[in-house]
């Protein structure tokens, strides 16, 4: 069956000795999509990317680009270009030569390659940088050269291997937006790998969360964030509170979990007997100075502020709550009445049963 | 700088300055002066360019000189071509213990003196030697084969002697090449040849130049290998210097030849640096 996807990964497995670096992974990337693979270091995402680029061969399975199998096709013949983690710019060449390199490899004449390189540099905002040495560029500029060097070849797919990892925080925030915009203007399919969930959430159309060689869940950023499919996804994507207990009752997706201290929590999940993990996002936890404000919520507790983590719009509170092993983390809205709360103050907190996901442990 | 610091610096520099001054600069100044003295009568010398004129008017001298230069460049080129894949393997493929082992293997022949090493080659190559014997045994030759005393034998011996000094700076230079830069070279569509020509070789250039300078210098100034392996056909310029100093006892003439050899090697090294657009500073750091 013909596929209209730019990339189809079909049951790909990569084994190093007895270790499965990538274990039976299947996914597709549609044309123009920004697809991210998110996972902790050592989860196999780099191996997966290197197989797509052609630097490693899968032990089994198929890698198809525009419906053509890439098995046995060497890296220099694949319509795929990679932005390396270290960027891997050619230090022996000028900026212009770096961008023109791929074209001259494809037999484009020197003059035309130079001209196209100049135009590409203009499009990524590096007009007039052609004759500079790559060592004389700033981090962000080097980044753009690395991307321009790929995009100028008009590849079917651009692979990005944590290219923002080496940048400082401010620049990284800026480059996130810039990358997303670049991808939009060139309308090229991007496959991006990262261990930084914020990068993945901000830029991606779809994200695959990878753990120990397998895909835990594939979905758009909102789905992953609000409806995690596995405990790993729930804890890896975004901040969350995590409690362990045992299911005491459950029906039709509504589950009651009893914590070791005896406190009962009401949440959503598959009704299972035995141990369970509960997850609630800090922003789902409502705060109030009196119990009356939270009466509509099915989980209501009283606690004492143990720490105020002020971080502007991302400020949060750690609340010592009787019955919970660790302090409960809750977002502190800076526009609310509680904005000025101090350590030691008593506080009421609560969350709805919809806001708490329960998984079998 | 305080007095103490100045004293420390002076003491630390003293051995180097003594070494350079007493063993290198002083003899060369002496040789330079000597090369300009002409013998006009027994035990009477005066200033003049006669020794240098002699070099240009006697074809044997300048032909030997040119031959030495061309052969040395050839030896350097062959050494480079042979050493490059070895260095590439040591730097990029071999890991850990294997890498150390390989470097040690390259170093091993140098535990034996140059003379003994060259005599070893003579045992292999001479008419009654091992290779000649093997050729006869296998029926590839019906009479003893003389492999010694020709240019091939001289080049073989000199390349062998220079290999290590090429491999080490090359391996050093290649080691610092980021593997992902090579991968990027392939990823963007480069063939093996393109990656080698446009990425690996330019990166290794300081090492190539450093190794070439060392090998060239060692070759041009070599004495034992051309004499032993080339015999009468060796015709190496150092032999002419030796003959003037020792056989003919014409020290001023020998001194002039010595200065000419120094000029020659300096000129060729300078030309090599210009040709490859390398600075002496970066090259020395690589060596």
Classified in CATH, the superfamily of the domain at 7-231 in chain A is: P-loop containing nucleotide triphosphate hydrolases
| Percentage of residues assigned to helices of chain B | over 70%
Mean pLDDT of chain B: 86
Q: What value does the Rg of chain B take, in angstroms?
A: 23 Å
CATH structural fold name of the domain at 7-231 in chain A: Rossmann fold
Shape of chain A: elongated
Helix/strand/pairing class of chain A, anyone?
Answer: alpha+beta
Number of helices of chain A: 8
The whole-number mean of residue pLDDT values of chain A reads 90
Q: Enumerate how many helices of chain B there are, as a single number.
A: 13
What is the CA-based Rg of chain A, rounded?
25 Å
Q: How would a crystallographer describe the biggest sheet of chain A?
A: 6 strands, mixed
Q: Which architecture of the domain at 7-231 in chain A per CATH?
A: 3-Layer(aba) Sandwich
Strand order of the largest sheet of chain A: 6-7-8-3-9-10
Regions with little confidence, pLDDT below 50 for 5+ residues of chain B: none
* CATH topology tier name of chain B: MetI-like fold
Largest interface, C-beta closer than 8 angstroms, per-chain residues: A-B, 26 and 17 residues
Order of helices and strands of chain A: EEEHEEEHHHEHEHEEHHEEEEEEEEEE
Helix/strand order of chain B, N-terminal first: HEEHHHHHHHHHHHH
InterPro entries (chain B): MetI-like (IPR000515), MetI-like_sf (IPR035906)
Subcellular location (chain B): Cell membrane
Domain ABC transmembrane type-1 (chain B): 65-272
Pfam families (chain B): BPD_transp_1
């Amino acid at each position: 069956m013909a596929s209209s996807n730019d990339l189809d990964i079909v049951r790909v497995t990569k084994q190093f000795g007895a270790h499965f670096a990538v274990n039976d992974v299947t996914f597709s990337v549609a044309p123009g999509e920004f697809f991210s693979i998110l996972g902790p270091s050592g989860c196999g995402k780099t191996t997966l990317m290197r197989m797509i680029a052609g630097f490693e061969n899968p032990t089994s399975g198929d890698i198809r680009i525009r419906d053509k199998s890439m098995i046995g096709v060497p890296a220099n013949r694949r319509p795929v270009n990679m932005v390396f983690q270290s960027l891997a710019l050619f230090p022996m060449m000028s900026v212009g030569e770096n961008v023109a390199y791929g074209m001259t490899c494809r037999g484009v004449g020197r003059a035309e390659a130079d001209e196209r390189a100049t135009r590409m540099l203009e499009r990524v905002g590096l007009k007039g940088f052609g004759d500079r040495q790559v060592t004389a560029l700033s981090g962000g500029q080097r980044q753009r050269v690395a991307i321009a060097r790929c995009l100028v070849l008009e590849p079917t797919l651009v692979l990005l291997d944590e290219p923002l990892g080496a940048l400082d925080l401010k620049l990284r925030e800026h480059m996130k937006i810039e990358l997303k915009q670049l991808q939009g203007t060139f309308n090229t399919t991007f496959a991006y790998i990262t261990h930084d969930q914020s990068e993945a959430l901000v830029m991606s159309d779809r994200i695959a969360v990878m753990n120990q060689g397998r895909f835990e869940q594939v979905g758009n950023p909102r789905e992953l964030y609000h409806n995690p499919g596995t405990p790993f996804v729930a804890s890896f994507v975004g901040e969350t509170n995590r409690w362990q207990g045992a299911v005491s009752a459950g029906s039709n997706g509504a589950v009651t979990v009893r914590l070791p201290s005896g406190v009962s929590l009401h949440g959503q999940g598959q009704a299972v007997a035995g141990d369970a993990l509960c997850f609630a996002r800090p922003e789902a936890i409502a705060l109030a100075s009196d119990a009356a404000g939270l009466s509509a919520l099915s989980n209501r507790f009283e606690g004492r502020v143990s720490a105020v983590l002020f971080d502007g719009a991302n400020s949060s509170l750690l609340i010592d709550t009787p019955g919970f092993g660790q302090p409960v983390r809750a977002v502190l809205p800076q526009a609310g009445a509680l904005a000025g709360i101090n350590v030691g103050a008593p506080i009421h907190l609560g969350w709805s049963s919809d806001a708490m996901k329960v998984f079998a442990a | 700088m305080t007095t103490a610091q100045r004293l420390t610096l002076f003491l630390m520099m003293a051995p180097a300055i003594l070494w350079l001054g007493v063993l290198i600069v002083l003899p060369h100044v002496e040789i330079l002066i000597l090369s300009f003295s002409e013998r006009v009568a027994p035990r009477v010398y005066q200033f003049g360019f006669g020794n240098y004129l002699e070099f240009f008017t006697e074809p044997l001298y300048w032909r030997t000189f040119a031959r030495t230069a061309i052969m040395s460049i050839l030896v350097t080129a062959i050494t480079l071509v042979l050493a490059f894949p070895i260095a590439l393997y040591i730097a990029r493929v071999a890991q850990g213990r294997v890498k150390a082992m390989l470097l040690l293997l390259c170093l091993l022949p140098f535990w034996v003196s140059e003379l003994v090493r060259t005599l070893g080659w003579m045992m292999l190559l001479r008419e009654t030697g091992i290779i000649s014997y093997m050729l006869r045994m296998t029926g590839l030759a019906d009479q003893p084969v003389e492999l010694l005393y020709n240019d091939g034998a001289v080049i073989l011996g000199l390349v062998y002697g220079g290999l290590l000094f090429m491999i080490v700076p090359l391996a050093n230079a290649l080691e610092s090449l980021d593997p992902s830069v090579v991968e990027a070279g392939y990823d963007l569509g480069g063939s093996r040849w393109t990656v080698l020509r446009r990425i690996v070789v330019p990166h290794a250039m300081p090492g190539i130049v450093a190794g070439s300078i060392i090998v060239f210098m060692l070759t041009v100034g070599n004495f034992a290998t051309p004499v032993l392996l080339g015999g009468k056909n060796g015709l190496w310029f150092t032999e002419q210097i030796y003959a003037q100093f020792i056989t003919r006892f014409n020290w001023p003439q020998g001194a002039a030849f010595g200065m000419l050899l120094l000029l020659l090697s300096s000129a060729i090294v300078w030309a090599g640096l210009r040709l490859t657009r390398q600075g002496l500073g970066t090259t020395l750091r690589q060596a």
